[in-house]
């Protein structure tokens, strides 16, 4: 059973992937987010990076649907989303790779880290306000170098999905609870 603390985090996280705010996640939500991120980071449609990104996003949608779509209706509702997090395979094979894909899109120069500017762009597209996005960035930038490294991000993801501590740095990935 997913704890109450995790339910809070996962419900807030669900909102970020529900691009049209209709209370469900379907392929159009994933497509809309990916297209917004590609547009924001000047990834040209038809480019190699765009094709790779779309292919990965489509595969992640299939994995998401396979793990979370309990009733087979090709949409994920909040209850299904939260229940899916009970399965460690969902977290490892779907949730974390989806978050890592967004991180990679934000890492425009491919140096394995995201600047504050890149972070703010990613978060604004996901509907996170500037103040919350800044708080997230500060909590995740453990070494205070002005960047979130892949290692810092991956540690935060593990903490987000695995911890009941609502004060933990990784919990900031949900935004304001």
TrEMBL record:
Keywords (A to Z) from UniProt: Metal-binding, Repeat
Phosphoprotein among keywords: no
Domain EF-hand: 5-40, 128-163
Protein name: EF hand domain-containing protein
SUPFAM superfamilies named among the record's database cross-references: EF-hand
Domain of life, source organism: Bacteria
Any one GO MF annotation of this record: calcium ion binding
SMART domains: EFh
PROSITE patterns reported for this sequence: EF_HAND_1, EF_HAND_2
Coiled coil feature spans: none
InterPro entries for this protein: EF-hand-dom_pair (IPR011992), EF_Hand_1_Ca_BS (IPR018247), EF_hand_dom (IPR002048), Recoverin (IPR028846)
């Amino acid at each position: 059973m997913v704890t109450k603390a995790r339910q809070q985090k996962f419900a807030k996280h669900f909102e970020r992937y529900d691009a049209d705010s209709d209370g469900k996640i379907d392929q159009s939500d994933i497509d809309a987010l990916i297209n917004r991120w590609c547009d924001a980071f000047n990834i040209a449609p038809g480019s190699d990076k765009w094709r790779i990104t779309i292919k990965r996003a489509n595969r992640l949608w299939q994995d998401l649907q396979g793990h979370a779509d309990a009733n087979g209706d090709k949409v994920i509702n909040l209850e299904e989303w939260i229940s899916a997090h009970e399965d460690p395979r969902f977290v490892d094979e779907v949730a974390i790779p989806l978050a890592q894909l967004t991180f990679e899109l934000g890492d425009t120069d491919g140096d394995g880290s995201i600047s504050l500017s890149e972070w703010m762009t990613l978060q604004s597209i996901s509907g996170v306000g500037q103040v919350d996005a800044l708080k997230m960035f500060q909590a995740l930038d453990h070494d205070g170098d002005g960047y979130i490294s892949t290692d810092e991000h991956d540690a935060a993801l593990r903490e987000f999905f695995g911890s009941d501590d609502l004060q933990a740095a990784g919990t900031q990935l949900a935004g304001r609870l």
